[in-house]
Known about the structure:
The chain is α/β, with parallel strands linked by helices. The chain folds into two domains: 157 residues, Rossmann fold, CATH 3.40.50; 126 residues, N-(1-d-carboxylethyl)-l-norvaline Dehydrogenase, domain 2. The chain has 14 helices and nine strands. Strands 3-2-1-4-5-6 form a six-stranded parallel beta sheet, with helices on both faces. β1, α1 and β2 form a beta-alpha-beta unit. α9 packs across α10. The chain is elongated.
Amino acid sequence: MATVGVVxxxxxxxxxxxxxxxxxxxxxxxxxxxxKAESLVAAGxxxxxxxxxxxxxxxxxxxxxxxxxxxxDVTEGTDGVVGGLGKGTTLIQMSTxxxxxxxxxxxxxxxxxxxxxxxxxxxxxxESGTLSVFLGGAPEPVEHWLPVLSTLGxxxxxxxxxxxxxxxxxxxxxxxxxxxxxxxALALAERLGLSRDAAFExxxxxxxxxxxxxxxxxxxxxxxxPRFALYLARKDADLILEAxxxxxxxxxxxxxxxxxxxxAENAGLGDKDYSAVLARILEGTSQVESSER
Length: 293
């Protein structure tokens, strides 16, 4: 068993810590709001004073924060994780960020001291240990930390540092694109006079069948409890477009999905599940219909 630090105790980070603790690992935890560490400390985790303190006490430190700015805040400077890493300690970076953020972090550390390891899945998957863990890193630390990461789900070692970040952006390109096209298909059905039941029946015969069935109850109830918050999906879409643009690639469909997500966030849906973009797309259609009457 290992001593693992977890920096960032939001919906995902707190559950990652809980699962590792339940597996018998010693935990050192830190969060900007100390109250979020209280239940873990009550269960036996040690509370760190700073991210650097967490790094000094651990054999590996997991970072799970919201965005690139937050990653800089917890890794750099006197109190950052990098400043507290000792020889042989590994930083396992699990936040969803872009290639620039990963490269920036890699430049601060020896190659063997960093694993780039974002995950695909949400609260239910981390609790059940069924995340997809996209891993980039050198062979030696990958082999060493594979048993710990396997506690969280299925690990895919995809290449050197940077491969994990790339894989997560590719996966989320599909996520935001599919939810956007599902919304537009439902909106078109509505505009062309198909009933909602008929629209879902038709979509059930297409490549969108699984997503249509999964999202139907939310569309019909108007309730979108958060699993993957819409504001985070919008942030990820921005990262995808930024990374693509730097390679000279234009992602037209992803850009459209990003615009829908931004519109939904501006409409106050940011804290809902990202699938609440469906409500915004359908609402926009209704508003167009009303203005044309």
